[in-house]
């Protein structure tokens, strides 16, 4: 018989099956699938059994990029060697999961290119956008933590049902948290205020607004980029909830903007495309710089209940309350050093910003000069092409003239040959006609002579017969 411990481990291995990756805290599906390892060897009480077979390869993740099959996972580990002691060697570990691709691939890129082609041309006098309150926006998404382990998804729905509608409920029972997206921000605020720190099944609920990671920060915007152009330009990547160009107290653009997409893949696609390439919004070759924007909680902030009071640093820092340091004291001296450090940081930051502005101005002048040279080269190239085309047209015209002259000469020669052949044929016909007329004349002459001869013989014969008849009458 197997030892109880080895039997327990064997049962655990038998229950291990290939399972998909667990969702993250944002409710996003993870990538590949981990393969299942081989079974553990079974040894006797004294001699170790042979190691288990090689672990199975990881199952490939779903490929959303194109029509290719899922990517295969890694190969499983080799089975364990024969154990010398009690129990056998362990089975091989499962292979790694296949890569996960979240995107539409080349078809999505083609759609982006088509949308950008539709926007080609002047972008002036854009219509003002309509500010509407969007239902089920990402600003209405709540995170609920410290949930009881025996709670169900229906319990979560019943908990938020009195505060309005919701279209998304993600529940992770093992980790004790959930996500709920309410219909409007006001209802989400009301639910957070009433349910935060509320006792529920001997647990104190923790509720805060959750950022789904759809916000992007855009820098290096031109001063002529407005909210409308900003929104229209980035709408090629997906539907937007918010597109704002940040301005100062005078209403002038600061060169930065904030984007909020409706879906996280759209934000990731925009970040990827703008990072790998150069995306321009205006005629100026000034690419926008897109970076992920971290969520900042400016509503609830850092509450006292969220502080770890068991940390020794907490008790150390809270020993003294707010105060002003006395001049010449130890605290005053090192307080000045802290302030000097921040002043140095501010000065260096100011110098760096000034240097950056100078470099920007220098780069803009270089761009203008290079643009002028580029346009001049384009005009020269265009003029050279026009000259080449003109020469080609002239050569083609001269060639057509030569062909036309050759064709005219050939036609004239052919016409001359035809006229000569007609003249020869006409002369032959005239000669033939004269010959026939001469033959007819000779024939008629001969015929006339023949007839005359024949007529002369008949007259003699008639006279002779008349004489015979007269002699006969007298004799009678």
UniProtKB/TrEMBL annotation:
Span of domain RRM: 140-212, 214-295
Biased composition regions of type Polar residues, renumbered to the chain: 1-10
The keyword Repeat is annotated on this UniProt entry: yes
UniProt-recorded Gene Ontology molecular function terms: RNA binding
Key words, A-Z: Coiled coil, Repeat, RNA-binding
PROSITE patterns, A to Z: RRM (PS50102)
Superkingdom as given in the UniProt entry: Eukaryota
Compositional bias (Gly residues): 29-60, 73-100
Region (Disordered): 1-102
Recorded coiled-coil stretches: 342-447
Protein name (database record): Protein no-on-transient A
Taxonomic source organism: Hyalella azteca
Gene: LOC108666553
